[in-house]
Amino acid sequence: MEVMGIILSLFLLMFFAYRGFSVILFAPVFALLAASLQGLPFMPSYTELFMGNAVTFVKSFFPVFMLGAVFGKVMEDTGLAKSIAHSIIKGIGKKQAMLSVVLACIVLTYGGVSVFVVVFAVYPFAASLFKEADIPKRLIPATMALGSFTISMDAMPGTPQIQNIIPTNFFGTNVYAAPICGTLGGLLIVCICMFWLEHRRKTAQAAGEGYGVGHTNEPQIREDSVLADWKLAVLPLLSVLVINYVMTQMFVWDPNIFSAFGGIKIPLLAPAVKNVAAIWALIIAITVGIFVAVLLGHKALPKGGLAKALNAGTIGSLLAIMNTASEVGYGNVIASLPGFKAISAALIGIHIGNGPLVSEAITVTTLAGITGSASGGMSIALNLMANDWLAWANQIGMSPEILHRVASMASGGMDSLPHNGAIITLLAVCGLTHRQSYPDIFVVTLTKTFVAFVVIAFYSITGLL
User: Fold this and answer.
1) Which of 129-138, 330-339, 395-404 has the highest mean pLDDT?
2) Fewer CB within 10 Å, N or C, the chain?
3) What span, in angstroms and rounded, lies between the C-alpha atoms of 459 and 465?
């Protein structure tokens, strides 16, 4: 009966999220519903348990969310992101229209631009290219999802996306963890999904289906609009990657740096410098990227445009961080309930092979699917079980790097179910519906999930990181 209360709570949260209700409001509502059904006092469950864990997440990751959103907005408003997308797409051409769109999304996402900004930056050029090549418009969302939500979000070593940052806080790793496994997994996803999308394109072509007519939200690209040279436009992305690499791989923080605060009581202090070093590196790298983007693109901004871009990015980050923090708070309330002990025991008790990787992958991707958020689901899973998985790995001599990479890739699996916010935004921007485009997005989702387990098998056989 206790487990049924948790399942009811999860179902209601999924249902309301799918119907467009804010998880900031309803995550605590359904967390408290589950808590009250199992006898926990109502108000302490909210103010101390739910909010305590939500605030801890904000403390750890708000700078990354905020600076990432500001960077993306500056890249968008200066036209630098559009310049990169336009150059890649036009350079490869309509003969490889789908590959062009995928590569444009990968470059921008790997360079630190948020997936939401990438959607807005790439869609106009993708629509124009698909129309010119007479490829069904309904395939654009899956093509953009492949480029934005897979290889450059959570698989490739060094990606500055939040899904690759969160595990560093739990495992003491850095964003370059398990580079061989990550690169292999990312390439597999792209190859399998490109094969599927090309199959769908050829099938549509054989049936006489083209781009189609009567679409909504068709973009208008001014041919006389002046975009920055792509060689300049790519510099902010390169600066993020280079600075992040230097700060992660070459710079060594003083392990006793916290002692400088003397007797000051620091709330929510990290257990060690290694747990926050990757976050510090990314904060520095994105800050440099913002300065470079402003320096190169400020002339393209209208009067007052810089303040508008900085403010819009900052304010926009609040929704993203609060959505994720609410999901984290919800997960920790659920984890405290007596009924969750049975669920937790079942998940940690998944012993396939001799290590925790399968247990980790199933737990992370399941919670990411339930919450509709890769970062939220992974944060919940790692808050609950990271210590157990790490202890298990230490017992058998397994590197925490592979724990990091599997958690990151598994989070980018079932997260993209229909109630995922990025999927809803992507479809809205493209002017398409779930009925038209989600079946092909779901293939990308299944492939991402499948490849996470392929990576586990590869590591188990070869031991290569």
Assistant:
1) 395-404
2) N
3) 7
